[in-house]
Amino acid sequence: MRKVAVVGCGGSGKSHLARELGRILGAPVTQLDAAFYDDRWNALPIDKFTDVQRELVAQPRWVIDGNYNSTLQVRLEACDTVVLMDVSTVAALYGILSRQIRHGAGHKGNGVHNCIHWGVIKYVATSRRRMRPRVMAKIEEFGSGTDVVLLANRRQTHRWLRKVAAEQS
Question: Cα-flanking dihedrals φ and ψ of residue 131, to 5°?
Answer without folding.
Answer: -90, -35
